[in-house]
Amino acid sequence: MKIVSIGLNHKNAPIDIREKLYFDTQHVNAALFELKKRFPDAEFVLLSTCNRVEIFCACKRVGGVEYEQLAEFLADFHKVNLNDFREHLYFYCDEDVVRHLLTVASGLDSMVLGEEQILSQVKDSYKLACSARSTGKITNRLFHCAFFTSKKIHTGTGISDGRISVAGVAVELAKKLLAEITKSRTVVIGAGEMGELLVKHLLHVGCSDITVVNRSFEKGNTIAQKRGIKAAQWNELNAKMVDSDIVISSVSTQEYLFDKDKMRGIMDKRQNRPVLIIDISMPRNFDPEITKIENVHLYSIDELSSVAKENLKAREDDISKCMKIISEETNVFMEWFDTIELGPLIGLMKEQF
């Protein structure tokens, strides 16, 4: 048996490439069923977030799944030319796959060092794979090893101390760009986990005029009542955009909420008053073309990396401790993995004797 993985992330692929290969929950299920149909003897888990798309596979060492087949699957599923993203792909095998997954699940490969949201995303991806019955003995053990390692790192090192999430970095960026952020009228689009984190960080830096706009008003209103802010109906979004100084968006959608024409109409009503928009969604909620409109200042998730990197140098000791734990747990897993093929062989030898 062997373990292989293929993927791309925020470090080596721009947002427009990651956007084309992004899987929402429905697409993850469809993709896993298709992979099992093509390769019935293999095991699969698919991880897709705003910063990465990765396929993990366990299969036969001879006659199993090859990297090129997984790359072609990504291209076929999303109807994208493989040559458009081939140069951004990375490939891992066996021990390197294990080390990579443990690093990812522990938040050490994230844009924001030590973030814990990625662990939830890895767990959700594994649950989807279990529901699709695409996992097996090897992937089950591998992902539980990743969960254990992440917990060990976050409880046994200081990597989580002073941790900031993607939402925190977005608010930090807004704070840097607007001197009087506490007086700004802010709209948060989306009331999911990320939306609530955004509200929490905005309140922490002193913002008080915050409105949450969500497709489900009840969900948005729940956060508003919990945090002491305002909520608005989805059909009020355009009006709120006209009145706001800051807009931070984290909605899951397959099409832009605002294209260039729609945004130009809003700016006309604003009488060209400047607006700061931070789009941390995947796929993006705002067409990047709107940056061509005067006084529209749009930042995507990739622009947050410079803010996140400021925290890296002070954490070098913690990173070293974390990598030592990852190395130890990788060795533990590989010791188990190396015995898998020995078991049947020993059984066969016993039969012969």
What can you tell me about this protein's structure?
There is one protein chain. With 353 residues, the chain is α/β, with parallel strands linked by helices. 48% of the residues lie in helices and 14% in strands. The protein is built from 14 helices and ten strands. It has helices at 15-20, 25-38, 67-78, 95-105, 117-131, 137-156, 166-177, 193-204, 217-227, 237-243, 260-269, 305-309, 316-339, 342-352; strands at 2-9, 43-48, 52-59, 90-93, 186-189, 210-213, 230-232, 246-249, 275-279, 296-300. The strands form two sheets. The protein has a six-stranded parallel β-sheet, with helices on both faces. A hairpin with a 3-residue loop joins strand 2 (43-48) and strand 3 (52-59). The two termini are 25 Å apart. 43% of the residues are buried. The mean pLDDT is 93.
